Amino acid sequence: MRERSVKNNYKADFPLLANSDLIYLDSAATSQKPQCVIDALTNYYQTQNANVHRALYGLGEAATAEYEQARKKVAGFINSEADEVIFTKGTTQGLNWIANGFAEQVLKPGDEILISIEEHHSNLVPWQIIAQKTGAKLVYVYLTADLNFDYADFEVKLNSKTKIVALHHMSNVLGNILDISKLAELTHNFGAYLVVDGAQAAAHTVLDMKKFDCDFYAFSGHKMFGPMGIGVLFGKRELLAKMQPVEYGGEMINEVSEQSADFKAAPLKFEAGTQNVAGAIGLGVAIDYLKQVGITNIEKVDLDLSKYAKNKLEEIDGITIYGHNHGIISFNLDGVHPHDVASFLDADDLCLRAGHHCAEPLMNYLKIPACLRASFSIYNDYSDVDALANSLKKIKEFFGK
Ligand SMILES: Cc1ncc(COP(=O)(O)O)c(C=O)c1O
User: Is the per-residue pLDDT at 6 higher than 50?
Assistant: First the structure.
């Protein structure tokens, strides 16, 4: 096993990393899972498995109680009420549901949907489709010269035609975090709704729906130490009452007759069919773990490692850095395609994403086809960044750059 120069106390909690030499620098794609979350999934299937909200026997009632307990845990974590928390497959599903179940009712021809050039395709393509369906127009907020969200441009673009503002909380490429409370206030001044893509932010900063005052907020369990296939859509109670379900089926109804059906109230009206119960319980355990580590500690590690990485990479001639913030650094090695760099890094056990990061309009804006991204979590330390810098130096020599 590789000698580690810095002792990381959290790595031991993550079996995939604790028992290997892998240097995992792709937590923005998905975080590794701590043993407690893996155990919660196994335990559910070994001792608690039953369908929820249907069974009248003890095992089923206990599973329902655990599932609803997980919902309460999420509500506590994001400072909302439990009936404002809908379980989804992940951020993508949540954003599609808002676009199709809510925004489609609100938008008319000529209305505007304001998004930013930094959006992940999950918070962009659903809006393109809804704009095409309703005759609304997509309007973009661009970046400042130092590649930050341009609040001045936002204020210029926001107007009485704006009906939906859909923004990331934390960029998956540049790592910057937006001021959601301020954006909500500006948005509401024009009577528009603020939809937030929280996929990256959920494991990196405090989530407080009451303080943010956004109208909808979507995030994914798998990026915050939880299982894949579970996510959360928060919506303000009065808006969830207006929003239509996008899927229909079992357990979301009060009564069904031959020609029509009457739906339950939120959140159950959105949770049609058998749900990812083990996933929801696993997400609850991931939240316990996150709280135990402490978001403030995570923020400290994020900022520390992205700054350390910036300094290390800047020492290498021919590296262009695009963004470095909150546990993310995106860069290219001039003259070498990022896919080639990623393959060479892999040979040194370094796991890094290379590509357009599901943010093609941003890549076009930056005038690059793709880039590399190192993203950190609490199981990373300086030795991981040192290994990345050393490997990049070797690759640079190999390509004669
Ligand atoms: C900013 C952002 N939004 C949305 C998503 C989509 O998340 P998921 O694939 O979990 O639905 C991602 C995933 O990388 C993301 O980084």
Answer: no
The answer, yes or no, to whether any atom of ligand 1 lies below 6 A from the CB of 96, is no
Q: Could you list the active site residues?
A: 358
Q: Which residue ranges form the domains of the chain, and what is each CATH number? A: 11-30+294-398 (3.90.1150.10), 38-292 (3.40.640.10)
Q: Provide the CA 164 distance to its chain's centre, in angstroms.
A: 20
Structure tokens at 68: 């609803």
Atom of ligand 1 nearest to the CA of 231: 10
Contact 161, 110 (CB under 8 A): yes
Residue 113 to residues 7, 123, 193, 385: CA-CA distances in angstroms?
Answer: 47, 11, 10, 39
Distance 123 CA to ligand 1 centre (A): 8
CA distance readout (Å), 258 to 160, 250, 255, 262, 271:
43, 15, 10, 12, 22
What residues have CB less than 8 Å from 128, skipping those under 6 apart?
A: 138
Q: What is the pLDDT of residues 250-299, one digit of tens each?
A: 989 999 999 999 999 999 999 999 999 999 999 999 999 999 999 999 99
Listed residue (1, 30, 35) closest to 16, CA to CA: 35
Residue 58 main-chain phi, psi, to 5 deg: -55, -45
Residue identifier of the C-alpha nearest atom 15 of ligand 1:
199
Q: Is the pLDDT of residue 4 over 90?
A: no
